[in-house]
Amino acid sequence: MTDTGSLAAGAAPAGCPAHTGAVRLAGLEYQQTPSQLYRALRREHGAVAPVLLDGDIPAWLVLGYSELTYVTSHDELFARDSRRWNQWENIPTDWPLLPFVGYQPSVLFTEGEEHQRRAGVITQALEGIDQFELARDCEQIADRLIASFAGSGEAELMSAYAHALPMRAVVQMCGMPHSGTDTQQLVDDLRESLDAAEGDDPVAAYTRVGERIHQLVKEKRERPGPDITSRMLLHPAGLSDDEIVQDLISVIAAAQQPTANWICNTLRLLLTDERFALNVSGGRLSVGEALNEVLWLDTPTQNFIGRWAVRDTQLGGRLIRAGDCLVLGLAAANTDPQIWPDSHVGAENAAHLSFSNGEHRCPYPAPLLADVMARTAVETLLERLPDLVLAVEPEQLTWRPSIWMRGLTSLPVRFTPVVQ
Fold first, then answer.
1. Minimal CA–CA distance to 170: which of 97, 102, 263?
2. Which listed residue, 185, 255, 307, 334, has the most CB atoms within 10 A of its CB?
């Protein structure tokens, strides 16, 4: 990880958001029912709220749909290079959010022409993926996973299916074996670095991720193949190995865990909401609606850190100082009552911010590929196990303790055993 001492940009200005009323983004209530916290923050602070990150580090949480759209559309005011942050002198070297904000030579932190160059390489590499072939591959992966538990009549779908399927699909797209100890360790380290549980060491996990991807890039430079890594290496932009490593980590991390949570959150909706119960067993019509509704109401990436103010400016009636950190409240913006005054989210509307917005949004065609993986996973499971039901009461399901990701701790189900 980056040495934060080399990033220090001076003391936090007097106007930083560590003032009375700042709310810690933590606690059981937030983890299980964040929508209640968003409503309370809106009532008290409006569309931009002062918050405290781990270690009581001050930041702003952008709650409003129009405000978040403004921030992500104005890179000249709210930029991605975290070296601008006015809090670096207060950040310890083992701060758990360092994998998010410690500056790396990654596409995530680039700006202007350099960002366009790097994002262009990723876009072209992803465009080389045939979506029909991806759907076929995902269906085959789904069948192998389902076969591993179909005979038992019960399963815990988070670990056995929802996380495993996109993991295998993504690493396969990047040119790694879709199974094996090495691959599983990579996925475990990605989870730990991006969504650490108590006792985890996210900084060490991120270091291991970088080492494994370095090895993959070295292998593909020697023996290129029909995969994302090789296409990035062969791109005329001529990215260095270190640049490709960083950008591959971004691609894999963005594709694996959010897609896994999208799958599981959709299955939860289908299995607990009676609006879908009449349709699921009879066809596929409601699966697309459920996938889209989840992006509005239980988006896999709740919050994203972030943007850093280039200069003093105003946002949502707040004075934002140069170097202040803004956390993008994607989930809060998606449920902004200004865009849903009747508290009804239309599943047919796709104007959500779950893939962010602006130049730094998920690069095309990444959202389409994620949709292929998620849709195939959900449809294949429901086709193979048509009488799938929850093994616990809906209120017994719990959300993982994270302010960043929205995903269940487990999704236990039962069904009629299938003899293979």
1. 263
2. 307
Output the CA–CA distances (angstroms, integers) from residue 303 to 32, 68, 272, 363, in the order listed: 15, 11, 25, 18
Distances (CA, A) of 80 to 37, 88, 112, 241, 244: 26, 15, 10, 22, 19
User: Do 299 and 406 touch, CB atoms closer than 8 A?
Assistant: yes
Cβ neighbours, 10 Å, residue 206 = 24
> Which SS3 state, helix, strand or coil, does residue 306 take?
strand
With a CB cutoff of 8 Å and minimum separation 6, the contacts of 299 are 330, 331, 334, 352, 354, 406
CB 23 within 8 A of CB 48: no
Q: Fold for domain 4-414?
A: Cytochrome p450 (1.10.630)
- 3-class state of residue 157 by DSSP: helix
Kindly give the confidence (pLDDT) of every residue in the chain, 420 residues in length, as a single tens digit, with 9 standing for 90 and above.
333 332 233 333 334 444 567 888 876 566 677 888 898 899 999 999 999 999 999 999 999 999 999 999 999 999 999 999 999 999 999 898 988 899 988 999 999 999 999 999 999 999 999 999 999 999 999 999 999 999 999 999 999 999 989 988 998 999 987 667 777 788 778 777 766 667 788 788 888 988 999 999 999 999 999 999 999 999 999 999 999 999 998 898 888 889 999 999 999 999 998 877 654 555 444 888 899 999 999 999 999 999 999 999 999 999 999 999 999 999 999 999 888 866 666 666 778 999 999 999 998 899 999 999 999 999 999 999 999 999 999 999 999 888 889 999 999 999 999 986
Amino acid at 123: T
Residue length of the chain: 420
Q: Rounded to 5 degrees, what are φ and ψ at 361?
A: -70, 170
Q: Which sequence spans correspond to the domains of the chain?
A: 4-414
What backbone torsions phi and psi does residue 268 show, to the nearest 5 degrees? -60, -45
